[in-house]
Design brief:
Helix content: 10-25%
CATH class of the largest domain: Alpha Beta
Bound molecules: flavin-adenine dinucleotide, FE2/S2 (inorganic) cluster
Order of helices and strands: EEEEEHEEHEHEEHEHEEEHEH
CATH superfamily of the largest domain: Nucleotide-binding domain of ferredoxin-NADP reductase (FNR) module
Number of helices: 7
Strand content: 25-35%
Shape: globular
Structural class: alpha/beta
Mean pLDDT: 95
Strand order of the largest sheet: 10-9-8-7-11-12-15
Radius of gyration: 18 Å
CATH architecture of the largest domain: 3-Layer(aba) Sandwich
CATH topology of the largest domain: Rossmann fold
């Protein structure tokens, strides 16, 4: 058995999150991968079609992964039904490491599908509520229909998180925030001088949010974000995910903003 050998996992439940995004609950057919850390990813293999990196969206008590259909492999994974079997390798990469921020406030900011990789970090922080200060979850989506884990957000609020959602285009009946996620940064009820921030979404969203947080007094080294690049091996062998001197599968995907800023394809404004 090598890190390149996928282990068979059965889809035991499937939940539609939005029109193009599903969450699969997965259970090992026999041998299991080690429990992932929040922010890590697995290589998910749709047999006969291909393999793609997908972050874990829940690590315990069950493994969940949330997938947006954008191409052949993700469409095949989103088309899986309960009972079907996929292949899984991993977990790979460096995660959020929110343990490092114990005792301090947290800001978790997500754009679109970026809420999926951040969800295990939110759940970890809420399960250890006394270990952290205030927790602000900021979410931006294109429309209200694109919001992930909508039913769970109320539960996060009930467990002590501030959860703010903003949309680019409100539909009828939307009474929440409208506009860029950066507009929410000022409303995050945290002490920026000591908080840790965790960002996931399109690069332009992460860059602008990081800039807004630093503008509020946060240290750039305490802002972490997750970079995405096309991957093949997931374990630092093939060079497919090379970015500068880094391999994103091995040295990321999560890294401090102060290191990532120079690597992002969306340059400083
Ligand atoms: C570390 C990591 C974690 C990820 N986590 C998730 C996740 O939790 N949920 C999820 O839905 N997706 C996630 N992705 C993105 C996912 O891997 C891609 O959507 C997938 O590889 C697309 O493969 P495909 O064969 O379906 O489509 P393709 O035909 O390969 O691509 C379809 C379109 O998506 C673009 N694309 C392909 N790969 C990427 C990529 N890595 N980043 C940005 N654009 C890409 C292509 O340029 C093309 O426009 C993650 C990617 C990485 C690197
Ligand atoms: S995907 Fe092969 S080195 Fe990163």
């Amino acid at each position: 058995m090598t890190p390149m050998t996928p282990l068979p996992y059965r889809v035991i439940a499937k939940r539609a999150e939005t029109a193009d995004t599903v969450t699969l609950t997965l259970s090992p057919v026999s041998a299991a991968i080690p429990e992932p850390e929040p922010g890590q990813f697995t290589m998910m293999y749709a047999f006969g079609i291909g393999e793609v990196p997908i972050s874990v969206s829940r690590t315990r008590p069950v493994l969940e992964q949330t997938i947006r259909a954008v191409g052949a492999v993700t469409e095949a994974l989103c088309g899986m039904e309960a009972g079907q079997v996929i292949g899984l390798r991993g977990p790979f990469g460096i995660g959020w490491d929110i343990d490092e921020a114990r005792g301090r406030d947290l800001v978790l900011a997500a754009g679109g599908i970026g809420l999926a990789p951040l969800r295990p970090a939110v759940l970890r922080a809420l399960s250890q509520r006394d270990a952290y200060g205030r927790i602000a979850v900021l979410v931006g989506t294109r429309t209200p229909d694109d919001l992930l884990f909508e039913e769970e957000l109320g539960e996060w609020r009930a467990r002590g998180a501030q959860v703010e959602v903003t949309v680019d285009r409100p539909g009828p009946g939307w009474a929440g925030h409208v506009g860029l996620i950066t507009n929410l940064v000022g409303s995050a009820d945290v002490d920026p001088s000591e908080a840790g921030a965790y960002l996931c979404g399109p690069e332009i969203m992460m860059r602008l949010t990081a800039q807004a947080l630093v503008g509020r007094g946060m240290h750039a080294g305490r802002v972490r974000l997750s970079l995405e690049r096309n991957m093949r091996c997931g374990i630092g062998w093939c060079g497919h995910c090379q970015l500068g001197s880094l391999l994103i599968c091995r040295d990321g995907p999560v890294m401090p903003y102060e290191h990532a800023a120079a690597l992002m394809t969306v340059k400083e404004l």
